[in-house]
Amino acid sequence: MKRFLIPVMIVAIVVALYEQSSNESNVYVTVTAIAVFMFGMMQLSAKTPSKNQDKEDQDV
User: Fold this and answer.
1) How far apart are CA 9 and CA 35, in angstroms?
2) d(Cα 36, Cα 15) in Å, to the nearest integer?
3) What do you get for the CA distance between the two ends of the chain, in Å?
4) 26 and 19 in contact (C-beta within 8 Å)?
5) How far is Cα of residue 18 from the mean position of the Cα atoms in its chain?
6) What is the pLDDT of residue 37?
């Protein structure tokens, strides 16, 4: 999954930055690229364990 998400996120950021640097930037393309990047970050961070996972297990 990482092999697919990381390149897609990099492409989305490059597209968003390119759109911002052009004279007539399209807002819809920029918003879509940022949404794709945020979705990818959400998917990647879902796999990261919490720091407080041990404390939560002890409290229960």
Assistant:
1) 10
2) 11
3) 32
4) yes
5) 17
6) 93
